[in-house]
Here is the input.
Amino acid sequence: MVTNYKTSFKKVAQRKKREKIMGTYFSTSRRPSQLTRRIVRKLAYLLQGKYENRGKRSGEELAERAQHFGFSRVCFLYEKNGNPSEMQFFDVEKGWLEEKVRVLGVREFERNKRAPKELLLKAHDAAGKKMKELFMLEDSEVDGLEEEEAVVVEMNAQRIALKAKGEAALELRVKLEKA
Here is the structure.
């Protein structure tokens, strides 16, 4: 039996399009540095999103691709002097969102081999709750979830910290701003 991979890919994409995945589709500026690519890749992996290098695509093309994969939110990580500097968000239905997250510093930790599929979110203040909405994150539906069994995402006005299996994975010093 011969499998037509194009057809099966289209069916999966159509099914995902109908389901509307919670989470974020991540991309970068046109010519990102290695650090920016590594950070956005790690963010997408830990937050259970999808990362794609932007290349020469426009923001609208990336929004179409995000919609094709079932995502309704795109996060663009821009850089200044080779370092991540800000995240801007594009909603497929509403367009550009007025809030952006300024990245003031990045701290990477040893790479985790496998991240759990469950998310445990801790939004400590109003800015943390707003960032949770921007990234379209929802708590896991598993009751009694331990920190070692999940990716723990702590968000507040000063930082976004991600831990996988109880070990620190990534920490961003941030500031929530209006675009």
